[in-house]
Write a structure and sequence with these properties.
By secondary structure, the chain is mainly alpha-helical. It has a domain of 120 residues: S15/NS1, RNA-binding (Helix Hairpins), CATH 1.10.287.10. It has a two-stranded antiparallel sheet with strand order 1-2. A hairpin with a 2-residue loop joins strand 1 and strand 2. GO terms for molecular function: RNA binding; structural constituent of ribosome. It comes from Anabas testudineus.
Length: 260
């Protein structure tokens, strides 16, 4: 009985609050679901002596613009746009044409491959032995350096390009082998190449292997087998020496008998 009376009072109070919220929403010209949610939420609305206070509107400020990530400086940035392409630079007639034709033949309207070819020629000119040198180790290192830097710039923008990443790693390994050979054969040329091309040569890391129980057992077995083999070889050498000594003694005895 007491529970039913308490339930009725709670329902009456809730219906009264909902009616007042509906009248308040109509007075303020707001949809009813927003007012009921605001009134029943609790801490946002204060009810004092039958008066309801509407919470101040929230200000949604605009998000700050994301800063673009600045990648490494391109190796082609030092090429002036007024420079002629590599195919037209040795032609004297291209220097005497008007400005429109020069612009068409300059790097301003050149493709990326043409700019990269010009950068390769500049790097080759720094390290080549003479004017006709096109196949020495220094020239190969210069060509690989230009190619590696081009791959690095591409992968900074497209980091999911696995094919070009694999090509870059293969080019880096090939350049390491050439630099290692050049360092052993001509150290002065190795220093010149690293200085002119801006290459930092680092030594390969020392051999490191993770020690496991299986590897330790295998190593102990290999050492045991090696010791047994060395012991057998020592016994065979001893037997060989003894047989040779006995043969020498027999030969000496037969020689002594024959002399008598």
């Amino acid at each position: 009985m007491f529970t039913t009376i308490a339930l009725r009072t709670v329902l009456k109070s809730s219906t009264g609050v909902l009616r007042e919220s509906g009248s308040l929403c109509s007075a303020v010209s707001l949809p009813p679901w927003t007012c009921s949610a605001a009134l029943l939420s609790g801490p946002r609305v204060s009810c004092v002596a039958g008066s309801f206070a509407i919470p101040p509107p929230l200000r949604h400020y605009a998000r700050a613009a994301k800063k673009k990530k600045t990648g490494p400086e391109s190796q082609l940035s030092d090429l002036p746009p007024t420079m002629l392409k590599i195919d037209y630079s040795p032609v004297p007639l291209a220097q005497m044409t008007d400005d429109l034709v020069k612009r068409l033949l300059s790097l301003e309207l050149a493709s990326h491959s043409e700019k990269l070819q010009l950068k390769k020629e500049q790097l080759i000119a720094k390290v080549q032995r003479d004017e006709n040198d096109r196949s020495s180790t220094e020239v190969q290192v210069a060509i690989l350096t230009a190619r590696i830097r081009n791959y690095q710039e591409h992968l900074h923008k497209h980091h999911k390009d696995k094919t070009n990443k694999r090509r870059m790693l293969m080019a880096i390994d090939q350049r390491k082998k050439l630099l290692k050979h050049l360092r052993l054969v001509r150290y002065d040329a190795f220093e010149k190449v690293c200085e002119q091309l801006g290459i930092t040569y680092t030594f390969p890391p020392e051999y490191y292997r993770r020690v496991t129980r299986r590897w330790l057992a295998k190593k102990a077995l290999c050492i045991k087998v090696f010791n047994e083999v060395q012991k057998q070889k020592a016994e065979q050498r001893l037997k060989m020496k003894q047989s040779l000594a006995s043969a020498d003694i027999e030969a000496a005895e037969t020689k002594a008998i024959n002399t008598q």
